[in-house]
Amino acid sequence: MELSQRVLNRTTLHRQLLLERAGLDARAAVERLVAVQGQEANAPYIGLWSRLAAFTQDDLTSLLYGKQVVRGTMLRATQHLALSDDYLWLRPLMQVPMSRARQAAFGKAMPGVDLEELAKLAREHLTGRTLTRPQIRDLLAERWPDVEPFGLGWSAQSLLPIIHTPPNGTWNQGGATPFTLAEEWLGRALESSPPVERLVTRYLAAYGPAGVMDVQAWSGLTRLKPVMEAMDLAKYRDISGKVLYDLPGAPLVSADTPAPARFLPWFDNLIVAFADRRRMMTDEQRRAVCVGAVIYPTFLIDGTVGGMWDFKDGALVMTPFSPLPSAARDELAVEGARLLAFAGHEGGAIEWRPGS
User: How many domains does the chain have?
Assistant: First the structure.
């Protein structure tokens, strides 16, 4: 069965809670999304606000302080928020891509550093306490004074399961990143050999239907084709003939289903979840939105990316990729006013940049 781009779009929006705001609580929404991009502190809050019928900043902040949700390096060796229960199996699966990313970034800059010794020493420094990133790298630099300190700190983060404790990662809270051992923060051990099939199943439930390369792009894992071929999965094809996998019996959404205006934050899961992102945007738009390691905040019109946005001096500034119909501008203005209020800029101006 061939699936059109519009069916893929509507189905993905439905699974991402973006066709209609869901009545889930914040904990259930984080679980649904597997892990929420957390490279920018406010992004998870805005992403959940766009998806949930009733969500406040305190809803997520309380989960972080209550250790039900944790912030740490996970998918693609980048910062995410995940349920503590999911972190216990997700973080071990990420060790291979995290080690690969560490080697690519710092391998040549750290000649003579024994990684097992580095991990052991970092664990000793962190046992029973929380240190900031500068503190742990300075302690490691005492052992390797001729090695660039930033690489030592990043290596510790990639080799050990590290949690970044609140208030870091809560609304408007950045600053020095704290390091603490995940097992101590959670009081539980990580799983030793979690099945990769669990990750594939959770991904498809939240992002499917999707191809092997999509799952790999989202997770950072490789060689998943034999894994997915061996699983009991439904198979489709997209308009280019690529095989797409899905959970058996998972519903598809009709192409003519209405899709409301939505605002997505920096690094939103929806934008980074696929190798082939044409279900959400054109290749030209992708080049504007995805620049190096940066994923700019976007807004959706009729289910696809219509432009980019940001806050500037308390105003919501929108830059459409092409002129928008008046009905679309009105819909964005209403949703934008709600976003301004959520972000603490109630009554702030809405500005349009060239392209509108």
Answer: 2
pTM, rounded to two decimals: 0.95
Tell me if 94 sits within 8 A of 114, measured CB to CB.
no
CA 115/CA 161 separation, integer angstroms: 15
Identify the segments of the chain with pLDDT beneath 50.
Answer: 356
Strand ranges (E), 19-106? 36-37, 69-73, 79-83
> Given 134, 166, 186, which residue is the final one in a domain?
186
Rounded CA-CA distance 296/3 in Å is 28
**Is 245 inside a domain boundary?**
no
| pLDDT tens digits, 269-292 | 999 999 999 999 999 999 999 999
Query: Running DSSP on this structure, what letter comes out for residue 75?
Result: G
Q: Are 212 and 245 in contact (CB under 8 A)?
A: yes
Residues 166 and 26 in one domain: yes
Residue 208 lies in a domain: no
Instruction: Say whether 143 sits in a helix, a strand or coil.
Output: helix
Tokens found for residue 38: 């957390």
CB 183 within 8 A of CB 161: yes
Non-local (6+) Cβ contacts of 202 within 8 A are 34
Domain range for 86: 20-186
Is 264 exposed, middle or buried, given 0-12, 13-18 or 19+ CB atoms closer than 10 A?
A: buried
Asked, as a colleague might, if the bond just before 209 is cis with ω within 30 of 0, I would say yes
Structural domain contains residue 268: no
